[in-house]
C-alpha cells in the first residue's frame, strides 16, 4: 500500500506512476481516513472551532480530493479502458461520501455553533459559503427526502460521466480517409499531420478526424463542399441516433433526459421552483428571469449586426463562390473566403507566425510585466511527454506552479480548461503555506516533421486567444493572496463571475505591443508585419453579431431547459423554439449538437452557460480601465495592473465578486465596453 503513488506524501501527484490498479485501494483508504475524520469532528466533545475542525477534517478531505483529482484528470487526458473502469468503479463511492459530507447534520450543527465574530475576514466568507452550501447540499432534509437526495447525486455523477464518455468515444470513433483531390485548400500543416496519421495505420491518403485541429481547418478551407458535408454531418450528429447505426451505442438521448429529470427532482427536494433557480442561488444573478432578460436584451442589441453579417455572407457566396443556396457546412468556408477578400489576409497566413514556443514566450512576458512575477521551467512527474511544468515566482519566492498540456490526441477530452491541483492554504496541520498548483489543458495541433525537419506546432489566432483565456483562469487560481483554502483563487467565486479573469486576458491578443513579441514566422523567424496585424484588427469584429447570437442561443436554451422544460419532452423541440427566436442561420434537421453539449451535461455549467456572456460584460469593462490609462503608444499605466491584481486576482473568492469589481472600477459594471469592443456600440 505504501508504494501506491496516490497515497504518496509527495506534494505533487506522481502522474507518471499512477496506474488503474492503484485507484481502488487508494481511494478506499482515503475515504476511510476522511470518514474517520468526519466522525471525530462531529463527536459531541469536539470543539466547534474553525481551525480545530479544519486541521482534522479539511486535511483528510483534501488528501482524498487531491488523489481523486489526479484520477479524474488522467481520465480526461489519458483515457483508457482500464482507467475508465477503475474511475467508474470508484465514482459512486466518492460521490456518496461528498454528498453525505455536504449534508451531514452534525457537521452543519458544528458550523452553526461557531463564534463567527472570532473568525478573520477570509474565514467569515468561507463560513458564510459553507452554511449556504450545507442548505443546498441537503443538510436540512430528513428521512426519505435525505436518502433520495443522496441517490440523485450518485446517479447524476454516473450519468454525467457517461455523457462525457459517449461524447469522447463518438468523436474518436470517426475517421475519414481522403484523397489528394478532396483535400485541396486544406492548410499544409494540417495535411502533414493527416498524412502521417494515415501512414501510421498503413493507409493511403489523409486521415481526417473530428478533433478540432483537423475538423475546423477542413470546414474553413477545404474547397470540396462534399468533404465539408461529410465532416459536418459526422460532427453535429455525434452521440445521437442521427449518426450511423454502428455508433448508436454512444447515443446520449436517454442520458440527457434522465439528467434533466433528476435535476428537477433535486430542485424540488430543496424547495426550488426548478433547477435553474437552484443553480443561480449561489451566483451573482438573482434569478433565472434576470438571466433570461439579460440574454434577450443583449440578443436584441446584437441581432441587427447578425442579420447584416448573414446578408453579406449570402451576397458574397452568390457572387463569388456561385453558391445560391449555402448549406450549414458551407458557412465557415464562405466566411473565411469573405474575410480574405475583405481584409486581404487569411487565417492560414497569420498562423505561420504563431509558433507554439514563441506564443508561450509572449504570453509569459505579458504576465510577468503586468503582475511583477517571473515564470520559469520546473520539473514534476507528468502524464505525457508533451506536458510541461512551470513555476511562478515573485522576487525569488514561489507563488505557484502549473502544468501545460497543449496538444490534441486520442483519448483526451476535447476543448480547453483549467483545473486546480492544490489550492493556496495556510495549512492548519503544519502552520506552513501551501502554494497553489494548476492544470492548463488545450487541444492544439501537434508539431510536424517535414522531409526530416521538425517544425513547431502552429496556432491559429483563435488558439492564441484560447491559451490566454485558460491562462487567465490559471492566474486567478495561482496569484491569489488568500490563505483560506475554500475562498482562495477561484474557490468560492460566483460561477457567473469566474470567467472575468479568463476573458480579460483575451484582450491582450489584440494589442500590438503584446503581439509583436509573440510571433516568429515558422520558416524565416520574422515577426508578424504590422500591416498584417492591422488587417487582423480591422477584421476583429467580423461576424461578431452572429457569434454573439450563437452564444446567446446556447445560453438561452440552457436556461429555458432548466426552468421551463418538461424533462420527459424532446429537448429538440425546445432547441427549435430557441433557434427560431435567436438564430439567423438555419440548422439542418439532423443537427444534434446538444448531444455533445458537455458544458451543461457533464461540465458544471448547467443553467450557468450564460456565465460566459455575463462575465464578458465584467471583463470588457475591466479591460476598459487599461485602455483608459494607456499612453500614446497603448501601454497601460503599471498602476492599473497592480490595482487589478490586488482587487480581482489576489482577492479570489474572499468577498463577493461585485465587491471586487467595484474595488477595481469604483462602480458597477456597464455593458458599453463589451458592445464597443465587439463593434456593436451606438456608433457602429
Short note summarizing the structure:
By secondary structure, the chain is of the alpha+beta class. It is built from 26 helices and eleven strands.
Task: Write up what this structure looks like.
By secondary structure, this protein is an alpha+beta fold. 54% of the residues lie in helices and 8% in strands. The protein is built from 26 helices and eleven strands. A hairpin with a 2-residue loop joins strand 10 and strand 11 (453-455). Helix 16 (461-478) packs across helix 17 and helix 17 crosses helix 23. The mean pLDDT is 96.
Number of DSSP strand runs: 11
Principal-axes shape call: globular
- Please tally the helical runs, counting DSSP H or I stretches of 4 or more residues: 26
Task: Provide the CATH architecture of the domain at 5-169.
Answer: Orthogonal Bundle
The overall pLDDT average reads 96
Strand content: 5-15%
Helix content: 40-55%
Uncertain regions spanning at least 5 consecutive residues: none
Amino acid at each position: 500500500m505504501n508504494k501506491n503513488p496516490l497515497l504518496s506524501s509527495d506534494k505533487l501527484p506522481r502522474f507518471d506512476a499512477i496506474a488503474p490498479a492503484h485507484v481502488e485501494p487508494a481511494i478506499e483508504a482515503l475515504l476511510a481516513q476522511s470518514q474517520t475524520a468526519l466522525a471525530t469532528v462531529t463527536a459531541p466533545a469536539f470543539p466547534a472551532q474553525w481551525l480545530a475542525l479544519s486541521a482534522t477534517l479539511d486535511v483528510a478531505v483534501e488528501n482524498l480530493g487531491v488523489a481523486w483529482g489526479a484520477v479524474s484528470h488522467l481520465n480526461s487526458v489519458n483515457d483508457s479502458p482500464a482507467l475508465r473502469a477503475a474511475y467508474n468503479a470508484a465514482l459512486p463511492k466518492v460521490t456518496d461520501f461528498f454528498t453525505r459530507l455536504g449534508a451531514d447534520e452534525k457537521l452543519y450543527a458544528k458550523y452553526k455553533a461557531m463564534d463567527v465574530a472570532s473568525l478573520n475576514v477570509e474565514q467569515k466568507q468561507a463560513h458564510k459559503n459553507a452554511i449556504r452550501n450545507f442548505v443546498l447540499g441537503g443538510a436540512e432534509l430528513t428521512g426519505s427526502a435525505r436518502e433520495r437526495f443522496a441517490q440523485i447525486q450518485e446517479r447524476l455523477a454516473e450519468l454525467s460521466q457517461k455523457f462525457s464518455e459517449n461524447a469522447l468515444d463518438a468523436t474518436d470513433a470517426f475517421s475519414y480517409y481522403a484523397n489528394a483531390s478532396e483535400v485541396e485548400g486544406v492548410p499544409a500543416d494540417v495535411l502533414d499531420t493527416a498524412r502521417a496519421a494515415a501512414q501510421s495505420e498503413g493507409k493511403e491518403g489523409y486521415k481526417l478526424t473530428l478533433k478540432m485541429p483537423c475538423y475546423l481547418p477542413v470546414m474553413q478551407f477545404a474547397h470540396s463542399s462534399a468533404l465539408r458535408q461529410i465532416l459536418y454531418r459526422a460532427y453535429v450528429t455525434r452521440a445521437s441516433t442521427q449518426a450511423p447505426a454502428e455508433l448508436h451505442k454512444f447515443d446520449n438521448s436517454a442520458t440527457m433526459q434522465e439528467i434533466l429529470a433528476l435535476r428537477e427532482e433535486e430542485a424540488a427536494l430543496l424547495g426550488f421552483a426548478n433547477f435553474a433557480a437552484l443553480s443561480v442561488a449561489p451566483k451573482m444573478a438573482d434569478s433565472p428571469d434576470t438571466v433570461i432578460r439579460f440574454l434577450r436584451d443583449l440578443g436584441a442589441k446584437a441581432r441587427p449586426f447578425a442579420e447584416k453579417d448573414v446578408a453579406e455572407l449570402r451576397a458574397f457566396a452568390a457572387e463569388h463562390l456561385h453558391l445560391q443556396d449555402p448549406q450549414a457546412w458551407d458557412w465557415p468556408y464562405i466566411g473565411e473566403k469573405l474575410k480574405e477578400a475583405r481584409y486581404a489576409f487569411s487565417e492560414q497566413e497569420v498562423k505561420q507566425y504563431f509558433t507554439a514556443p514563441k506564443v508561450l514566450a509572449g504570453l509569459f512576458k505579458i504576465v510577468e510585466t503586468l503582475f511583477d512575477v517571473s515564470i520559469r521551467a520546473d520539473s514534476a512527474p507528468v502524464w505525457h511527454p508533451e506536458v510541461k511544468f512551470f513555476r511562478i515566482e515573485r522576487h525569488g519566492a514561489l507563488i505557484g506552479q502549473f502544468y501545460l498540456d497543449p496538444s490534441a490526441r486520442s483519448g483526451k477530452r476535447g476543448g480547453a480548461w483549467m483545473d486546480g491541483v492544490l489550492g493556496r492554504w495556510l495549512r492548519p496541520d503544519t502552520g506552513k503555506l501551501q502554494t497553489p498548483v494548476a492544470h492548463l489543458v488545450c487541444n492544439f495541433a501537434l508539431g510536424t516533421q517535414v522531409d526530416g525537419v521538425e517544425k513547431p506546432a502552429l496556432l491559429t489566432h483563435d488558439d492564441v486567444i484560447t491559451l490566454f483565456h485558460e491562462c487567465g483562469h490559471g492566474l486567478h487560481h495561482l496569484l491569489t493572496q488568500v490563505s483560506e483554502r475554500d475562498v482562495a483563487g477561484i474557490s468560492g467565486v460566483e460561477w457567473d463571475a469566474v470567467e472575468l479573469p479568463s476573458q480579460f486576458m483575451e484582450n491582450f491578443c489584440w494589442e500590438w505591443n503584446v503581439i509583436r513579441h509573440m510571433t516568429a514566422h515558422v520558416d524565416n523567424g520574422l515577426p508578424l508585419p504590422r500591416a498584417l496585424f492591422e488587417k487582423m484588427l480591422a477584421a476583429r469584429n467580423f461576424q461578431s453579431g452572429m457569434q454573439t447570437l450563437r452564444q446567446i442561443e446556447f445560453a438561452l436554451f440552457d436556461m429555458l431547459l432548466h426552468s421551463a422544460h418538461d424533462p420527459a419532452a424532446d429537448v429538440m423541440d425546445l432547441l427549435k423554439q430557441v433557434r427560431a427566436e435567436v438564430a439567423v442561420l438555419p440548422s439542418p434537421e439532423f443537427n444534434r449538437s446538444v448531444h455533445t453539449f458537455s458544458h451543461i451535461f457533464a461540465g458544471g455549467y448547467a443553467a450557468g452557460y450564460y456565465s460566459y456572456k455575463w462575465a464578458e460584460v465584467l471583463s470588457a469593462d475591466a479591460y476598459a480601465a487599461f485602455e483608459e490609462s494607456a499612453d500614446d503608444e497603448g501601454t497601460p499605466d503599471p498602476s492599473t495592473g497592480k490595482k487589478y491584481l490586488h482587487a480581482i486576482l489576489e482577492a479570489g473568492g474572499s468577498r463577493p465578486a461585485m465587491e471586487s469589481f467595484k474595488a477595481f472600477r469604483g462602480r458597477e459594471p456597464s455593458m458599453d465596453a463589451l458592445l464597443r469592443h465587439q463593434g456593436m456600440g451606438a456608433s457602429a
